[in-house]
Specification:
Structural class: alpha/beta
Strand order of the largest sheet: 2-1-6-7-8
Oligomer: single chain
Helix content: 40-55%
Distance between the termini: 24 Å
Number of domains: 2
CATH topology of the largest domain: Rossmann fold
Radius of gyration: 20 Å
Strand content: 5-15%
Shape: globular
Order of helices and strands: HHEHEEEHHEEHEHEHHHH
Number of helices: 11
Length: about 290
């Protein structure tokens, strides 16, 4: 199984690969996901990782009898994960106030204009610097002005943070800034976006911390839903896929949370996700006689 949509391969490349796969094998129910909606793709696949990381955050807060409503949120990145994390945050009543790209960071205290970000990044494919031409009350901080050892996107006062850009983008300096500025939740949309020192800081501070290995599983999960639709020759509505995604993210959270309690570190979802994942594989191997 190849979930190529999760490693940066675009729809065009998936199209070429799937076309050749079908030509060589004569099969349609292929192993490639992230396909076009015209030939077997799934609704919500583009939005899935961003939506999923927010659903995971929602689950973390629910344990503390809290919600995302009225929370100010820091987002890094401006690709699919970041854009659709912001979209879901708005739908749940939260307010994203930052986003970023390779050229710099946007800070907009009244809330990021998501329509404009989509226009700049999905259509015009230009720098976020153009954002401040439309919104004079927003700030653009160039990459060259990032604080020593850190990144400007994490150095504003907010309730929650969603690193959605790239690996090792959130450093010890950034983690310390987040904690000192009152951040109570970090949910990772990118793969391993926090350095180990930053992760340790979050765990020691006992904030809600969702590691990427659990929190950003929405994309892969929806790839599986795409394969299920292909195998059954069905097409599910946006609402059906989104509802299934919510259930999956809830189950992932529950497994990690329950494991953290069972092994004496309640709320440590790094430990919980590691143990829950290992246990699932180990139990399957035992039951199938592999070991």
């Amino acid at each position: 199984m190849f979930l190529l949509g999760d490693i940066g391969v675009g729809a065009r490349e998936i199209g070429y690969l799937f076309g050749q796969y079908k030509r060589l094998t004569g099969r349609y129910e292929g192993v490639l996901t992230g396909k076009s909606l015209l030939w077997g793709g799934s609704l919500v696949r583009k939005e899935a990782t961003g939506y999923g990381v927010v659903y995971f955050a929602q689950n973390m807060l629910s344990v503390k009898q809290d919600t995302l409503k009225d929370k100010s949120c820091l987002i890094s990145g401006s690709g699919n994960v970041a854009i659709y994390a912001m979209e879901k945050l708005y739908q749940l009543g939260a307010k994203p106030i930052t986003c970023s790209d390779s050229t710099g960071c946007i800070y907009h205290e009244t809330g990021i204009d998501l329509t404009l970000v989509k226009e700049l990044k999905e259509k015009s494919r230009t720098s976020l610097k153009a954002y401040v031409k439309t919104h004079k009350d927003a700030q653009f901080i160039p990459t060259s002005e990032y604080p020593s050892g850190g990144h400007s996107v994490w150095h504003f006062v907010a309730d929650a943070a969603f690193p959605c850009a790239t690996q090792n983008e959130l450093t010890l300096t950034d983690a310390q800034a987040l904690i000192s500025n009152g951040c109570k939740l970090v949910s990772e949309g990118a793969n391993m976006p926090s350095t180990q020192e930053a992760v340790n800081t979050f765990i020691d501070a006992k904030i809600c911390y969702g590691p990427g290995k659990a929190a950003n599983a929405g994309g892969v999960a929806t790839s599986q839903l795409e394969m299920a639709q292909n195998s059954s020759m069905q097409t599910w509505s946006f609402e059906e896929v989104d509802q299934k995604l919510q259930v999956i993210m809830n189950n992932i959270f529950k497994a990690a949370h329950q494991a953290s309690i069972e092994f004496g570190q309640p709320g440590n979802l790094v430990l919980g996700a590691n143990i829950a994942g290992f246990k699932r594989v180990a139990d399957a191997m035992l039951e199938q006689g592999v070991v």
